[in-house]
From TrEMBL:
Record keywords: Aminoacyl-tRNA synthetase, ATP-binding, Cytoplasm, Ligase, Metal-binding, Nucleotide-binding, Protein biosynthesis, Zinc
The protein's assembly and partners: Monomer.
Entries under Pfam families matching the protein: DALR_2, tRNA-synt_1e
Positions annotated to bind ATP: 290
Catalytic reactions on record: tRNA(Cys) + L-cysteine + ATP = L-cysteinyl-tRNA(Cys) + AMP + diphosphate
Ranges for domain Cysteinyl-tRNA synthetase class Ia DALR: 374-437
GO biological process, one term: cysteinyl-tRNA aminoacylation
Protein's name according to its UniProt entry: Cysteine--tRNA ligase
Length: 493
């Protein structure tokens, strides 16, 4: 019997604003689509948190014995700067500024995205489609929307008529916005726009002569609208009606609202049963932004090459820190918070490592089955990882009591308890036991500090050739030295 049959799951549905019983469209199968990155820059920490939330959700579905098709796209064209319809494509702008081909930009930052997610122990999605790989599908959807009278052509571009759509549907059903209010609070079109209404959005944009990324279409040489891409890719691989669509809270409007409108205009039905949105990540109590310097990249956490944290932190410690908050809650990242998370992570891993040394007795003095169900209850309540972690620390307490001989456990309970602890820690939360890596890091730190001491002595002796040689050879090995008032520190690149 599959595990999901005995573990009913509730999911908070952004569409209804309530937790609902999860009932898949096809018994035992889950179709899940998550909006992936626009690959024009290094993936930022807020992105990592969002994708981590859905990685845990994916992992838990697999743990419950569901067969899951998880689709997470790569947006490599069509995402206009500032998320509007007029202006420059983010990737094309980056290519122009760096004098690169757009696909060079796409390749560079797609590789960075994959490397970061691999470092943080993400499971790969079932399918990872790209927007540029689905131009034909997008053109076909546009044709259908035009045929339904909800899309219109203007000077080679195609727009979705939100007012026309809203005559028979509800534009704003996901975000709770009212179209009359939206129209009233939007400035009138100045006559230079091709749109009939301010809320209309682009399905296809005619490319200006200087625009590098362009494809032929029945309307013009151009490129697809950002919202259309996800409609094309989600329906191709999951069908016109699927279980879950996820993404960051910032995508609820207009991106996901427009997706619903496009799907319903084409198929006459709602595309998704459960809409899920992960909340934002702040840094030291403020919004993360490159412009203010209140920003840190995932790789900078791992290397320690930043001015925010007191030292480097491992991927598993960072992952553990993020999962201590519910995915729908705002999470604030700070040095104090991740230092505390590191202590908790090490305590948890010490207990997991001690499990094989526990000796079973004749009977159990603790109700381990009840503890196990509490772990499931946490995850079944809209994937509540902080409550699960609290239960895992209750398991840490049990392990210490068993080690000290203050409680007993039967052989059958010990086998099930060990299996359950490992399943929740490693399979569901996706943590890694980094004790061996910590030992290697301690040795590396000792060797590098010894070389730093030799370099300092060489500088004191005015043997600058030797001090430069030590520095250059460390750089060649990917170890960057940083001289400061308090001495020399290092980071691993």
């Amino acid at each position: 019997m599959p595990l999901y049959s005995s573990q009913p799951l509730k999911i908070y549905n952004s569409l209804s604003g309530e937790k609902e019983d999860f009932k898949p469209i096809h018994d035992g199968n889950v179709g899940m689509y998550v909006c992936g990155p626009t690959v024009y820059s290094n993936v930022h920490l807020g992105n990592v948190r969002t994708f981590m939330s859905f990685d845990v959700i994916f992992r838990y579905f697999l743990h419950l014995d569901y067969k899951v098709r998880y689709v997470r796209n790569i947006t490599d064209v069509g995402h206009i700067v500032d998320d509007v319809d007029e202006g420059e494509d983010k990737i094309a702008k980056k290519a122009r500024l760096e004098q690169l081909e757009p696909m060079e930009v796409v390749q560079r930052y797609t590789v960075d995205f994959h490397n970061i997610l691999k470092a943080f122990n993400f499971l790969p999605p079932s399918i990872e489609p790209t927007a540029t790989g689905h131009i034909i599908e997008q053109i076909e959807i546009i044709k259908k929307i035009i045929d339904k009278g909800i899309g219109y052509v203007a000077n080679g571009s195609v727009y979705f008529d939100v007012v026309k759509y809203n005559e028979t549907n509800n534009y704003g059903i996901l975000s709770g916005r009212n179209i009359d209010d939206m129209l009233a609070n939007t400035r009138d079109l100045d006559g230079q726009s091709d749109k009939r209404n301010p809320q209309d959005f682009a399905l296809w944009k005619k490319a200006e002569p200087e625009h590098i990324m362009r494809w032929p279409s029945p309307w013009s040489d151009g490129f697809p609208g950002w919202h259309l891409e996800c409609t094309a890719m989600s329906t191709k691989y999951l069908g016109n009606h699927f279980d879950i669509h996820g993404g960051g809270m910032d995508l609820k409007f207009p991106h996901h609202e427009c997706e619903i409108a496009q799907n319903e205009a084409c198929t006459g039905q709602a595309p998704v049963n459960y809409w899920m949105h992960a909340n934002m990540l702040t840094l030291n109590g403020k919004k993360m932004a490159k412009s203010t310097g209140n920003n840190i990249l995932p790789g900078e956490i791992l290397s320690g090459d930043n001015n925010i944290l007191s030292k480097p932190f491992s991927a598993s410690v960072t992952r553990f820190f993020m999962l201590q908050a519910h995915y729908r809650s705002i999470l604030d990242f700070s040095d104090d918070a991740i230092v505390a998370a590191e202590k908790g992570y090490k305590r948890l891993m010490e207990a997991v490592d001690a499990l094989p040394n526990i000796t079973a007795g004749n009977t159990s003095s603790i109700d381990f089955a009840a503890w196990k169900q509490l772990c499931y209850d946490a995850m079944n309540d809209d994937f509540n990882t902080p409550i699960l972690i609290a239960q895992l620390f209750e398991a840490v307490r049990y392990i210490n009591l068993l080690k000290d001989g203050k409680e007993t456990i039967s052989p059958a309970d010990l086998a099930d308890f060990t299996k359950s602890v490992n399943a929740f820690v490693f399979d569901v939360l996706g943590l890694s036991d980094e004790k061996s890596a910590d030992g290697d890091n301690d040795k590396l730190e000792g060797v590098v500090n010894m070389l730093i001491g030799m370099r300092n002595q060489a500088r004191a002796d005015k043997n600058f050739a030797l001090s430069d040689q030590i520095r250059d050879q460390l750089i060649a090995l990917g170890i960057q030295l940083k001289d400061g008032k308090e001495g020399t520190s290092f980071s691993i690149q």
